[in-house]
Amino acid sequence: MRLANAVNIADLGVMAKARLPRVIFDFLDGGAEDERTLRANRTAFERYRLRPRVLTGHATRDQSINLFGQHLAAPFLIGPTGLNGIHWTDGDLHLSRAASKAGIGFTLSSASNNSLEQVGGDSAGVKFFQLYPWGDRNVSGRLTDRAAAAGYKALMITVDSLTPGKRERDLRNRFAHEVRITPRVVWDGLMHPRWLFSTWLARGMPRIENVAEFVAAGADAHVLAEFTRSQRNPDLAWEDVAWVRRRWPGPFLVKGILTAEDALLARQAGADGVVVSNHGGRALDGAPASIEALPGIAQAVGDSMTVLVDGGFRRGSDIVKALALGAKGVLLGRATLYGLAAGGEPGVARAIAILRDEVDRVFALTGCGAVSQLRRAHVAAVEDFFRQDGGFTRS
Prior knowledge:
395 residues, TIM Barrel, two-stranded antiparallel sheet, alpha/beta
């Protein structure tokens, strides 16, 4: 299938699966344990129905948003994902460039394969940085200072994977931040020559570049992966989050929030916003879907914080539902990674174009001319949809 023939994100997922060896695709696509939360991230969208409004006179629609003073052309941005270089050489750069050309935001992971300085200086788009609070404050502090110096506009600290989820696909494949060479992996690579020659043989195993300064010069991918595994910090507490807040000069978000209680504690620690997230179903299996947790959190914090959300977004209708339920924007993970794995930067651009078209179409069919016009009244839970009042107060 050619990229131009992909009509939805699922098509890009099929193309990604065909190009990638199983060990790589399982890392991209898999979740924790029985993958209940992974599946719930998709099925939970079915709980909500969109309420179409007609004859509203919006022949053109504006889906742009302003996020922390940054104008973005769409109500979604590329979220932080690690090890993107195993899907496509220089994957972080391809994602960032596609986002910049589309006028949307891009978030770089601490576990990127291109350094934060390289990505920061590569394109002019709006960039945020995601911080894993690895090790002691020296590591977190250095990464935070480097991100500020490189021009990243906001910082997200991820707090929901201090203890790693049990990702059983990765365990079976012996994957842990690096590909371990086994006869099965070698054979699988040979069966996927487009990936093998364009990624592995072109550069070798990608390194987690942002932590290179903390290990011996010239360390290989295995040494850097081992460093990140050894630096998980389950003792992290809210006072540590407050310390990062004091160190970071710009907008600051806590990522991995699923309860109103923790959202309010994040606000108390000085956060400007939260990301409602279950780590893509890769941490605690059995946790709620992000879209299920979103309304309560948005209601609890009101206008005092910026609420973003990620987890299972594959359709423009998913994005519009999240905006109507209180999110100010949506972070994409697998949706744009499927595009990256299918075709590099053009594949990412295709994923963005598909979602922008779908968002625009949903806006038209729900009678919205702009994101600011979306209200809770544009969605209803299935059980409330046919009640006379829709199960909520109209606005």
